[in-house]
């Protein structure tokens, strides 16, 4: 199958997504560090489907989200740099390869940055709940996570189906 390795510069939207996702993620880590000494020994460790705390755990668990987020960022950034390794329809050819690569990379970029935003929000809320400034994530959290995962993917598949 035709799979050339191309150097395609990031689009403006990809750069904006990277700034927003990465920036919020770094801010959330900074917030954790700043608030660490104020946190009680027990903070939210898990939430149910409507955003209520259903398990409390050690504040050391707060470190898990930045580690997972950093790992996801690394892996997804590496995959963004290798669109020739992504999955494509058999109609991929010399004329449309750049469009397919760019679309696939944009989907991955949006999902990566939405994950970082999600982890930033979760970290922020876990600290706020631990401090008593909030009591849940909110009922809207799970629907927003699902929309954040499916909208870029569906949008990307629709765009892909239009590539000739």
TrEMBL record:
The chain crosses the membrane at residues 16-36, 62-79, 111-131, 137-158. Residues 24-69 form the DUF1648 domain. Keywords: Membrane, Transmembrane, Transmembrane helix. This is Membrane protein. It comes from Lysinibacillus macroides. The lineage of its organism: Bacteria, Bacillati, Bacillota, Bacilli, Bacillales.
């Amino acid at each position: 199958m035709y799979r050339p390795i191309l150097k395609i510069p990031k689009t403006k939207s990809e750069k904006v997504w990277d700034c927003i996702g990465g920036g919020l993620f770094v801010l959330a880590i900074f917030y954790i560090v700043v608030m660490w000494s104020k946190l009680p020994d027990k903070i939210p460790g898990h939430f149910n489907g409507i955003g209520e705390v259903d398990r409390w755990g050690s504040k050391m668990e707060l470190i898990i989200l930045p580690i997972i987020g950093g790992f996801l960022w690394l892996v997804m950034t590496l995959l963004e740099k290798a669109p020739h390794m992504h999955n494509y329809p058999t109609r991929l050819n010399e004329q449309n390869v750049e469009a397919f690569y760019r679309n696939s990379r944009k989907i991955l970029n949006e999902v990566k940055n939405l994950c970082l935003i999600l982890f930033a929000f979760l970290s922020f809320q876990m600290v706020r709940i631990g401090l008593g400034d909030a009591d849940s994530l909110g009922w809207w959290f799970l629907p927003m996570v699902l929309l954040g995962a499916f909208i870029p993917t569906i949008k990307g598949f629709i765009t892909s189906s239009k590539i000739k």
